[in-house]
Every structure is written in C-alpha cells, then in structure tokens.
Amino acid sequence: MTELHERLREAVRTGEDRGPEPSAAVVDSQSVKADATVTHASRGFDAGKRINGRKRRLLTDTLGLLLDVLVTPASTTDRDAARILLPAAKKNFQRLARIWADGGYTGHLADWTGLHLGIALDVVRRHEDVRGFQVLPRRWVVERSFAWLLRSRRLVRDYERRTDTSEAVIRWSMITLMNRRLAARHHHRAVPAQAA
Hints:
The protein is α/β, with parallel strands linked by helices. The chain has helices at residues 2-15, 78-92, 109-117, 139-149, 163-195; strands at residues 24-33, 44-46, 51-60, 66-73, 98-101, 120-123. The termini are far apart.
C-alpha cells in the first residue's frame, strides 16, 4: 500500500507541474474521539479540545497530499510527536527543507529541527485581534487535507484497536482521493479529444 500511495502522489505532483519529491511541507494535528474498541493504552485526553481519544498528525506537501502520518494518544504534545514524525519524513524526503506549523510546535523544536534535520520550521500564528475563523497562510493546506479525509466516514472517529491500523486507514483514504483526482484529470483531457 505504501508504494501505491507514493506512486500516486508522484503522479499527482507531476500532473501539477511539480517535482516528484517535495522541498516544503505543512504539519498539523487533529484530535478525534476514540470508539470503545480503542484500547486505553493508545488513547489519551486532549485538554485543549476536551477530547478523549487520539491525535492524528499529518505532514502534507504544499498541494495537501499526504507525506506522512502519525497517530498517538490525544495527550501526546505536538512537540513530542514532531520528534518522531519529522526525522522519518526527512529520511524519506531528502529535499525537504522547510515546514510550516502552528503554535503547538513552538519552543526549542525549531532549533532542534534546524540543527539535527537541516529543516527550517516556520510557525504561522493566528492574529490575536481576529475572532472566529481565519485563513492562515500555508496552514490552510493541511486543514483542507483534514477536511478531505473526514469525507471518509470511517475517519470521523477512530475505531481502530492499533495506531498503525489507524494510520493505514488514513493512507488508504488519501489513495482514494488521489486516484479520483487523477481519473478526473484523465477524463477531462479525453473529452475534448473525442469531441474533435
């Protein structure tokens, strides 16, 4: 499944006139409620969102396509999870040089990613004087990816006993999305040729 995901992402990126491997990415997390089938050892409480469940962390390219995913108990901080997610991403994507993130990734993490991974971590902050919804530069890309994934009913909650299974379901959902995108592009190109 991983190879299929990688090939589809490369095909979508190539179709968008991008290189097959990204040099920039966006990271964010989403807390979701856990079903009763989720073991207590792999769930936690996110005090900020008041959710008992798991946290999904997505690393996407600037098109919103999944590069990597990490599912942890909701109590795991973004900074702690980034020290697992980002080194794995750098290993798989050597060209990766810049990552945009939200305020949960502040602190010494930016220094650590620069020193140990050679990646510039830019934190995009909300304007404090703006109330309600606000589109933030770069960060909206990964937020849109979360919205795409929530179209899969199985991802509205976390039903999986194991976190690696949960990650696989997220990858499968992105495979479906990329497959549809490529099919629509192929159909769009084929229609004018038949009409002529």
